[in-house]
């Protein structure tokens, strides 16, 4: 079987996972502490969403080995899920506001 | 294992160039992950719709849940994912004992996560949450949470929890079979991909449901 993650030839092939684990935990703590900084709500939302995407990229890239696979696999996964979600969310947002406006009357 | 079976398990794409440079097992697993990801994407968009359309203000989650406890659940799941990644690498390097040990550690983490989720659900239900809204005269009733709030919670965390449970079943079978030498490294890798996907989904639920300000 071919090795795609470059496991061989490294002094400690497990180190990358535990470094990623530590970074993920630090990011999680930063996300928890962000609320205490009393930022404007939109800044906090952007901050949280950005860190969420960083965490997702790290899990997909390192734990799921996407960074060691062919780039088109990563593109298929990212486009398949994220772009579809974005389109869906873009279409439902005006509808949600419309429902909100109707019930507010 | 018969030679024919071994040949099938190790077979690579036979129709010319492999589409993603991966074995058919891995390609199919990724296609499954994308479709399952779309399920959660639909659920999260539905949650977004309910939250935006809600006339009653969405409650601040720290008033309803213990966020440090949810953070502990996140820590447990991320740690189990790191153990799973180590198990995949150990199996690739031919260290079966280490691979099996790491799979069992992953299972312990997953079971702890499910235990925490059961505890959280029981507290939430005790506070008056029902699928159809909050009971009057309870903590949630006094907070005046919109009916969509408990419904979104049960749906999102319930679907995720069922995936964690399925993952635990898959991992237990994989651990037992690997211990007997019946699961090839690629089988462990497939189980690992599913487990990391469960972790990935939690990252989105944790941020979008628990952390976004009301």
Name its key features.
heterodimer; A: 105 residues; mainly alpha; 2 domains; 3 helices; 0% strand; B: 214 residues; Four Helix Bundle (Hemerythrin (Met), subunit A); two-stranded antiparallel sheet; 76% helix; 2% strand
Q: What does this 3D model show about the protein?
A:
The complex is a heterodimer of chains A (105) and B (214). Chain A has 2 domains: 69 residues; 35 residues. Chain A starts with 14 loop residues before the first helix and ends with a helix. Chain A is flat, with a radius of gyration of 19 Å. With 105 residues, chain A is mostly helical. In chain A, 73% of the residues lie in helices and 0% in strands. In chain A, helix 1 runs antiparallel to helix 2. In chain A, 17% of the residues are buried. Chain A is built from 3 helices and no strands. Chain B is mainly alpha-helical and 214 residues long. Chain B has one domain: Cytochrome c oxidase, subunit III, four-helix bundle (Four Helix Bundle (Hemerythrin (Met), subunit A), Up-down Bundle), CATH 1.20.120.80. Chain B is built from 8 helices and 2 strands. A two-stranded antiparallel ribbon of chain B has the order 1-2. The longest helix of chain B is centred in the C-terminal third of the chain and has 32 residues. At the A-B interface, helix 1, helix 2 and helix 3 of A face helix 2, helix 4 and helix 8 of B.
Per-chain topology:
The complex is a heterodimer of chains A (105) and B (214).
Chain A: H1 15-34, H2 41-63, H3 71-104
Chain B: H1 3-10, H2 24-53, H3 61-64, H4 67-92, H5 96-126, E1 129-130, E2 133-134, H6 139-143, H7 148-179, H8 185-211
Antiparallel strand pairs in B: 1-2
Helix pairs in contact in B: 2-7, 2-8, 4-5, 4-8, 5-7, 7-8
Total helices of chain A: the number is 3
| Annotated CATH topology of chain B | Four Helix Bundle (Hemerythrin (Met), subunit A)
**SSE pattern of chain B:** HHHHHEEHHH
CATH-derived architecture of chain B:
Up-down Bundle
Provide a compact summary of the structure:
The complex is a heterodimer of chains A (105) and B (214). Chain A is mostly helical and 105 residues long.
């Amino acid at each position: 079987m071919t090795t795609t993650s470059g496991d061989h030839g490294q002094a400690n092939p497990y180190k990358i996972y535990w470094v990623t684990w530590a970074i993920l935990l630090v990011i999680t703590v930063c996300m928890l502490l962000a609320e205490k900084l009393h930022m404007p709500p939109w800044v906090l939302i952007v901050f949280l969403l950005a860190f969420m995407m960083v965490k997702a990229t790290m899990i997909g890239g390192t734990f799921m080995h996407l960074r060691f696979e062919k780039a088109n696999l990563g593109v298929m996964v990212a486009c398949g899920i994220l772009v579809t979600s974005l389109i869906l969310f873009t279409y439902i947002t005006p509808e949600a506001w419309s429902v909100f406006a109707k019930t507010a009357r | 294992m018969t030679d024919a079976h071994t040949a099938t398990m190790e077979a690579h794409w036979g129709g010319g160039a492999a589409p993603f440079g991966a074995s058919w097992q891995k390609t199919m697993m990724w296609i499954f992950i994308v479709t399952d990801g779309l399920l959660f994407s639909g659920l999260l968009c539905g949650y977004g719709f309910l939250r935006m359309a809600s006339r009653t203000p969405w409650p601040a989650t720290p008033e309803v849940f213990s966020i440090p406890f949810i953070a502990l659940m996140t820590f447990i799941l991320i740690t189990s994912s790191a153990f799973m990644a180590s198990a995949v690498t150990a199996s690739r390097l031919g260290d079966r004992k280490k691979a099996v040990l790491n799979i069992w550690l992953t299972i312990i983490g997953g079971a702890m996560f499910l235990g925490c989720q059961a505890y959280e659900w029981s507290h939430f239900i005790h506070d008056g949450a029902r699928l159809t809204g909050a009971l009057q005269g309870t903590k949630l009733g006094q907070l005046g949470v919109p009916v969509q709030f408990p419904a979104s919670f049960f749906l999102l965390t319930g679907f995720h929890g069922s995936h964690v449970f399925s993952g635990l079943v898959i991992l237990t079978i994989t651990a037992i079979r690997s211990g007997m030498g019946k699961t090839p490294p690629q089988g462990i890798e497939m189980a690992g991909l599913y487990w990391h996907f469960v972790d990935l989904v939690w990252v989105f639920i944790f941020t979008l449901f628990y952390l976004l300000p009301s």
